[in-house]
Amino acid sequence: MSSPVSGEAACSRLSPYFAYGCVSIREAAQAAWRRQREVPAASRWGAALRSFIARLHWHCHFIQKLEAEPEAEWRPFARIYEGMRPPADPARLAAWAEGRTGYPFIDAAMCYLAAHGWINFRMRAMLMSFASHDLFLPWQESGLVLARLFTDYEPGIHWPQCQMQSGETGINTVRVYSPVKQGFDQDPAGRFIRLHVPELGAVAGALVHEPWRLDAAERARLCPEYPARIVIHEEAARAAKAALFARRQLAEAQREADAVQRRHGSRRGRARQQRDTRSRAAPGQLVLDLDGVAVAPDVETMKVTRTGLGDGVGVTKRRP
To answer: Can you give the pTM of this predicted structure?
Structure first.
């Protein structure tokens, strides 16, 4: 899910079919569970299936967030962040949407998305992070650009993710991706960049990730049509973090974060605590086991959800 180079083949590519209802989450989960019984749990394929099933649960968890709070499409879960970002600068929004930011990996990812209507998860997060932090655009407007490009647009996932990548949920870690580091990590040879940003096709080696390091004569010769950086990442990221953490220091911020955690936070941590408590029973003590029923969903052991995957009911049967 990290690399746009291998993502086409490594991801399931089922998301458009889920979004349009062509394939149900239940159908996909049951197929994955059947396949789990056929492969060794310790194999790479077994690990991949566990990851896939976890993502199905994640899918339903996020949809429930929007169902529980429909205004999350336009209002942050933590209201303390409302109005923190100014209205979108049209020039910045257009440069980002059209792949003209001057950051090659950002522009390549956006051009790929525009051409294919799909891109892997890490790149979606990076694009949103760059819009929200480097360009300080409101997620409502940049999120709409992405929504119109995605063939697998799912509001329940998309809008909470827009908030999360923008640091406005109040409960998630603020992630500010370095576009240069992501480029070196995911496309070290620069092939993805050169393929989707042809203006940089003549730039050799690592400089394709940082064309601003070319001297004026080289830039004029090798990539005269590629734009200069729209912002300096380090400076813009520092300013965005300062604005976010200034809000987090307000007295109301922690109260709102606690409320968001109660409404939308993962229940798995609490479930683990319950399981850990049971595991510390005294030697010889009888354990109450209601016919193998667990208290909370566990993607490692889940076989059948009695009332349907993703309905918010945390009662499951463990595998025999």
So the answer is: 0.81
